[in-house]
Design goal:
The complex is a heterodimer of chains A (about 110) and B (about 120). Chain A has strands spanning about 5, 10-15, 20-25, 30-35, 45-50, 55, 65, 75-80, 85-95, 100, 105-110. Chain A has about 110 residues and is an all-beta fold. In chain A, β5 and β6 (about 55) form a beta hairpin. The chains are: A mainly beta (about 110), B mainly beta (about 120).
Chain lengths: ~110, ~120
């Protein structure tokens, strides 16, 4: 079955550590997105990519980095520069902009 | 300025009754799409319904319908015959044209269905 796989489901980060969240899709979608969700908030865009080897900053890109070396993969790194990284992270993809498929999310906690 | 506004942080409805979740949007782009997603406590985002700006008819998908009032920039979700499993967060989202196709989400409405 086609879909988006995010891993891990839960992730714990120590202060000063970089961590990478995985997002893989087998839908052959061109566009991929990373969102951050905080309690009581909607989804806020971190980064997006419309083609391989190209990506753009979203509304809250500071402290995050991404890569898009393969169409199927769009990993997100939460760097030590992100001072408040505890949140729920959702990855999504789209082929035409008429529908978006989401992964099941990664819950990141700073310990 | 917020592009998507959901004014109801929480809603309660009795099982088997209908409920309307409000959504207003702001865009100057004549071509756009409106979406509703459901997010249960597990966190996954489940697509419910889509309405294109040029669609003449209101979208319907089973028990879900979208009350699209273009002049008022309103895209309310109507859930008929509520079920206990409908208890979740509901998000309204908009995608504008212009090629980037980036969806913007509202803050969501928490729906609780009472037996």
């Amino acid at each position: 079955d086609g879909g988006i796989t995010q891993s891990p489901k839960y992730l714990f980060r120590k202060e000063g550590q970089n961590v990478t969240l995985s997002c893989e899709q087998n839908l052959n979608h061109d566009a991929m997105y990373w969102y951050r969700q905080d309690p009581g908030q909607g989804l806020r865009l971190i980064y997006y990519s419309q083609i391989v080897n190209d990506f753009q900053k979203g509304d809250i890109a500071e402290g995050y980095s991404v890569s898009r070396e393969k169409k199927e993969s769009f990993p997100l790194t939460v760097t030590s520069a992100q001072k408040n990284p505890t949140a729920f992270y959702l990855c999504a993809s789209s082929l035409t902009g008429y529908g978006y498929t989401f992964g099941s999310g990664t819950r990141l906690t700073v310990v | 300025a917020q592009k998507i506004t959901q004014t109801q942080p929480g809603m309660f409805v009795q099982e088997k009754e209908a409920v309307t979740l409000d959504c207003t949007y702001d865009t100057s782009d004549p071509s756009y799409g409106l979406f509703w997603y459901k997010q249960p406590s597990s966190g996954e985002m489940i697509f419910l319904i889509y309405q294109g700006s040029y669609d003449q008819q209101n979208a319907t998908e089973g028990r879900y319908s979208l009350n699209f009032q273009k002049a008022r920039k309103s895209a309310n979700l109507v859930i008929s015959a509520s079920q206990l499993g409908d208890s979740a967060m509901y998000f309204c989202a908009m995608r504008e044209g212009g090629g980037s196709y980036i969806p913007t989400f509202g803050r969501g409405t928490s729906l609780i269905v009472h037996p």
